[in-house]
Amino acid sequence: MQSQDIDPREPKDEHIVENKELNIWEALIPVFALVIMLFYNVFYAFGDDALSGSNQFILLLGAAVAAIVGVFNKVGFEQMLSEVAENVQSTTGAILILLMVGSLAGTWMISGIIPTMIYYGMQVLNPTIFLASCVVICAIISIATGSSWTTSATVGIALIGIADALGISLGMTAGAVLSGAYFGDKLSPLSDTTNLAPAMAGTDLFTHIRYMTLTTVPTISVALIVFIIIGLGLEPEGVADTASILSSIEGSFNISPWLFLVPVIVILMIIKKTPPLVALLVGTLLGGAAALIFQPEIVQTIGGGETLDFKTAYKGIMNAITVDTSVATDNEALSDLFSAGGMSGMLGTIWLIICAMVFGGVMDAIGALSAISKALLKLFHTTFGLFASTVASCLALNVTASDQYLAIVVPGKMYAKAYREKGLAPENLSRTLEDSGTVTSVLVPWNTCGAYQSGVLGVSVADYFFYAIFNWLSPFMTLLFAAFSIKIRQLRGSK
């Protein structure tokens, strides 16, 4: 299978470590310890600053607790390190993507690409329809690219900028962006998770996609209606000052529709199955070239030279790619909007992902992931119970393994036989894996998806959680269908 998501990890046939010495209560000790420590760290100690580093260390403490449980259950330290190494290695592609997204954001800012998107977007997207438009735009881009990550790294960043300029809640905007992005990701045949789920369940791709629309379309419809209602009641602080903001953008950048060529080229490259890292590198270099053509004064200022010679141009572009840069404007409200962190701005997110993978690796090595899934499977005996158990397993693995692929692979392997024995077609399982595994990964701050999206959009998971309506509503929708036996397909020949 060729993965087409911007996260270039090739979802491999993950092995599941079993440990007969470990019981379910022992498997849950690290989970309870992690939740308690994170709760105190976030709500009592550091608040919004918890992601600056303390949460990362809490994940390592959680891994230490899991390791102690493993030692008492005859799991060797070398085995734990081996699983951790495998987990961390599996995030190599995601880490490189994050670095490239940081560099792309830097050159797209100083070149005027993002300011141009904001400039024209503010004139086209009025506040009343803004949030609903975010959902639709991101859904279209995500279906075309097969990637929620691409969508947030391109149009998502621009939409956040427009919202900031208009005074619309960034949490609401990020929630709308992610709702649309994950809707498109789920239904695109180019998406890796959309290919992985049916492969694990034992059905084919297009049967899976058609069956998934039964729950996905109602869920996105509810999300759209909610965002339309929210939009009707919005009174953004920035609306009255739109003319001033547009004037400030024009005064700081040379605005031109030609700048749209760069993001269009990047999106087309992704659609044409260009490796994501290549597409982002090309986007970064094109952004640097556009900066030299359209914003030479800005490049000169960032490069710290008196004239725009080769050395100054080189330093200006490299600074935008690698470190914090900003463009001064005469409007104080835009100072944060026209700044970018480059590659260095992504290091906190990368740190979080690595620590999360350490915790997930140790949990896998001691057999805790397997024990938790098996225990959930035994709890339910009805058809609805089987669906509920699958949902609970996916959610638990997104929290404990910190990885959406494991949240699909482990329950997929564990439950395939149980669905067959209940006479249920495999697409029931593949749909449930996506409804509860893929889309909820972005709701966990230390999951690779939650860390990536909050890092790229610059909005914490806590701020967008409630507004990522499509993401948290999807598991409930699949359970609703199961509870009332709506479109629950049976295996041929079963009663």
Which H/E pattern describes the elements?
A: HHHHHHHHHHHHHHHEEHHHHHHHH
Task: Give the fraction of residues assigned to helices.
Answer: over 70%
Radius of gyration: 23 Å
In the sheet with the most strands, the strands line up as 1-2
Q: What would the average pLDDT be, to the nearest integer? A: 84
Please state the overall shape, judged from the principal axes of the Cα atoms: globular
What structural class should be given to the helix and strand makeup?
Answer: mainly alpha
Q: Whole-Å distance between the termini? A: 34 Å
How many helices? The count is 23
Work out the count of structural domains.
Answer: 2
Task: Characterize the largest beta sheet: strand count, sense, and whether it forms a barrel.
Answer: 2 strands, antiparallel
> What fraction of the residues are assigned to beta strands by DSSP?
under 5%
Uncertain spans: 1-13
Q: Total number of β-strand segments?
A: 2
What does this structure look like?
With 495 residues, this protein is an all-alpha fold. It folds into 2 domains: 24-90 and 346-483, no CATH class; 94-341, no CATH class. Helix content is 71%, strand content 1%. The protein is built from 23 helices and 2 strands. It has helices at 24-46, 54-72, 77-90, 92-110, 113-124, 127-145, 148-166, 170-187, 192-201, 205-232, 242-252, 261-271, 276-294, 296-303, 310-322, 347-365, 368-379, 383-400, 404-421, 426-438, 448-457, 461-464, 469-483; strands at residues 325-326, 339-340. Strands 1-2 form a two-stranded antiparallel sheet. Helix 6 packs antiparallel against helix 10 (205-232). The longest helix has 28 residues, at 205-232. It is globular and about 70 Å long. The two termini are 34 Å apart. Residues 1-13 have low confidence and may be disordered.
